[in-house]
What does this fold into?
Amino acid sequence: MFHQLLQFIAGAIRHVTHGSRTYFIWVAFLCCLIAFGAWGYAHQYQEGLILTGMRDQVMWGFYIGNFTFLVGVAAAAVVLVIPAYIYHWGPIYEIAIIGELLAIAAIIMCLGFVSVDVGRPDRFLHLFPFFGSPNFPRSLLSWDVMVLNLYLILNITIVSYLLYSSFHGRKPNNNFVVPLVLLSIPAAVSIHTVTAFLYSGLAGRPFWNASILAPRFLASAFCSGPAIILVLLQILRKTAGLQIKNEAIWKIAELMAYAIALNLFFLVAEVFKEYYSDTHHLVHTQYLYFGLGESGGLAIYAWTSVISTVIAFVLFVVPTTRKNFFTMNVGCVLLYIGVYIEKGIGLVIPGLTPDTLGEIYPYQPTAHEVQVAAGIFGLGFLAFTLMIKVAIPVALGQLQYKSTGPGADVSAQSSDAHGAHAGA
Amino acid sequence: MLTENTEIDSSSAPSGEVAETPEQKLSMSRRNFMKHSAIVAGAATAAACSTEELEKFTQKRLRELSQPELQALIKRMEADYKKKFKKDVDVRATPAAEGVKFGYALDLSRCVGCRRCVHACVKENNQSRPTPEGPHNNPIQWIKVLEMEKDKGIDLTEANAYYNPEEVPREGHFYMPVQCQQCENPPCVKVCPVQATWKEPDGIVVIDYEWCIGCRYCMVACPYGARRFNWAEPNLPADQVNTNTHILGNRPRPKGVVEKCTFCIQRTRAGRYPACVEICPVGARKFGNLLDPKSEIRAVLESKRVFILKEDLNTQPKFFYFFGI
It folds into this structure.
């Protein structure tokens, strides 16, 4: 056992430290981002959250917006396993592994964003059972901490098991892994539902206090999550020798078109209700799309989001643009931008502006917040890159345990040309 | 009547330092980087070594402490304050009395918007003072007075918290102070992920400053904008410290936690009026025990017609408004 672990670690290190120039530039770039963000965070730890643009009127901002967006990515990544299974996209385990690894990276970023947002990170243990006093089941934030961590553990378990089997050249035991993969699907839906409830349960914030919030969260997650996966699959099949059929990619794109349509429909339903009933609660929607008083608000972001999503919808729904890799990738980027705004600051800021006593505090993230966020994104991308760099060769049988003789070593045949440089 | 203090505008408005451009902040952070990293490293080392820090890290919730543990904690807090402020700060833990539920009533007809209550509250409750010259201006005020137009009535979307005329009341305006409404069904308590805030038997919603993780979900949930966050280290000059404190109330707070009005728990549990009631020059503020039929607050409820803010949210405030005239 110990010997196998050593072999695995040696092989993993070899894979991580060997790669193309692009791979090393990419990793170095991510390390710089992380250092940049860590420096910013050290400063914030010392001075307090006063370095952010948040104040008592708008007490959540860019950090929590990113957190919310990334929960969606984590949820959608895993749900891709369903169509992969139904439509026989070939290497189902590989697709499952990529989805789960993306989910793990997204959860790492989620936890990062929550951690930098709290005023007393030294007291994080108070959130956990046995060490602290989680307000479970009353507080939705307590639920969120719980389900996110369970989801992280679940994904780590599945991926480790699949890779462990592959490392030993064994077929995974379906009786063990299939129920877990199936369990991860409702778990993925539930993390995003709980995150939506965290907002929609607040009666004092009418912009969020809508039952359509959770369905909207899921619909938009099924836009942004697959948008990332589509690009990833194309990169990995070029660089890591992963066999993914074109049909599989087009099928995902087609499913995404439905998700975008649903998301836009929910948006229309909300906009209609707000504008037609025309109550005081309209101010938040008004602030989002047109600004209030002297404050331009978020209009430029909000319209960028709507327009990007609509263009992406057209690109995904028309078969010729969907099956053209250039226009499809443009659609992915637009969709990513659209949902990033909609589920990030486009959700958090108008919910809090004007505040409960009618004051408009024009929140803008400071350079400091962007700096810390860049560090967290760097961390997530690095984690994903390194995990995929080891996982793909293992899954493809290029990195396997050899028990023949003491001198035998891990076979790391993947040449530099084949080395995965995911995301590069 | 004159407004007491024009500094009010810095209360929680986008103040000087907020208006600073991100570039300025960044350059400042560059200048200070070496200093800060040295401090952080130093603090980390100190934390690792000192048993005092370990004690703080393993500190239980206030509600779970036995009497001896509570007394020991109070001793430690008093010693800490003595070191910090060079004076004796008395920290009490007076529990709620039997048969008491505090209620508050505010006469909108009388209030003239002078903000004496705001400043009396700041002094009494050791809130962070403004530092317009310093790098981080982080003033805290628990009471916010809203100016409204008479011909529009009570309309929060039209309210102005930053009025600053030569004299109050201004022609055609009336004033509505807002502070923690001490809800019977408090949304802030429900959402706190670590049970750091709760409703005491006498109805006061309190915060354990040693347990709060500073996630600010309670502030997001509060429909009355009553909670304040310590965005930076609070600025409390030693000569301005009120040394008569309660462990759940006005004792000096650390950076990174939430605070709010406690009906002056340090006073009211000792049979006194809250500071805002005492200072009000027009007698607009009434306070008392809701369970005592002879109390002042019950007299108001009996003889006036009262209303509460945002009654549709079912928060059941124990803070009532009325028009006395």
Remarks:
- Chain A has a mean pLDDT of 89.
- The domain at 2-395 of chain A is CATH 1.20.1630.10 (Formate dehydrogenase/DMSO reductase fold).
- The CA atoms of residues 257 and 314 of chain A lie 8 Å apart.
